[in-house]
Each structure stands twice: as C-alpha cells, then as structure tokens.
Amino acid sequence: MSILRLATARTAAVPSRPQNRILQQHTLPFSALAPVAKQVTVTFVEPDGAEIEATGEEGTNLMELAHENDVDLEGACEGACACSTCHVILEDKIYDELPEPSDEENDMLDLAFGLTDTSRLGCQVELTPDMEGMRIKLPSATRNFYVDGAKPAHH
C-alpha cells in the first residue's frame, strides 16, 4: 500500500470529534480578524484653485493618495524621500499635530519651490483620522532635478 493511500485510509477512519466541529463552526477567516482601516477624505487644492476630493485608507501617504486620484503631484523619487516634487502645504492645525520632519525630509524641503512654514513632503505624511476634511495646497511649481517636467505614470 502506498504512503498516500495509507494516509488517506487513516484520515478517513478517524471519527470526527465534537469539539472540532464546534471550532470549525465558529472560526472566522483571518481577514475578518484584521482591523478595518478607517477611510479619510481630504481635499487637494491645485495652484489654479481647482479642488479634488480624495478618500484613502488611514496610513496611506499623501503622495500615493494623490496619484490614486489623478492629482497633479509629481513624486519623482516614488516616495524615497530623495526629491522635493511631492511638496505639499498643510493647514497649521494638522502640521502642528504631525511628528517633526526627519533630517532627510528637511534636506529635501530646502530644495522645494515655494517653501512655507507648513510645507511637508507628501510621501512622508500618512493619513490619520484627524485629517478628515483637511485641505492640502499644492505649490505652483516643483523642482525636478532628475528630469524637469517629468511626471510618473499612475501604476
């Protein structure tokens, strides 16, 4: 008798146990146990005043959210904190609640066009429930030293 047939024969011969049936009836799939990410809606304000409302899951960074919603925010380094093309201008209240920018982010912000006191890199700011309804201003220009004017395609 082959090993496979022997294993099948033994499995078929084992009576089901009542406690196993109880566990099987009340076991939820793993995905049902995962916490549900809160949806956060913000408004991107383009330099010409046009507004684009975007909704994303908590933890999504502003650059990714912009790309998912066809907002004209560059992100030449694709979120590696190696450029300033995802520069955004935040509301005072939200800016004050965020952790301080890292040294790397500050170095890149020094290269940003139209820097303000509440400027951040969109790739470094993640959505939180406190940002619900926030307005995010986009600067009138960016500096892309890699290929000026190049914009990454939405994946």
Question: Helices and strands in order, then pairings?
Answer:
Blueprint lengths: L2 H11 L4 H9 L3 H4 L5 E7 L5 E7 L4 H7 L18 E3 L2 H6 L5 H7 L9 E3 L13 E3 L18
Parallel strand pairs: 1-5
Antiparallel strand pairs: 1-2, 3-4
The count of helical stretches stands at 6
The span between the termini is 54 Å
Decide which structural class fits the backbone. alpha+beta
Pick out the low-confidence regions: 1-12
> For the largest beta sheet, what order do the strands appear in spatially?
2-1-5
Major β-sheet, in short? 3 strands, mixed
| Rounded average pLDDT | 82
Rg of Cα set: 25 Å
Task: Summarize the helix and strand pattern as letters.
Answer: HHHEEHEHHEE
Q: Using the alpha-carbon principal axes, give the shape.
A: globular
Q: How many strand elements? A: 5
What level of helicity do the residues show? 25-40%
Percentage beta strand:
5-15%
Which keywords apply here?
155 residues, alpha+beta, two-stranded antiparallel sheet, 5 strands
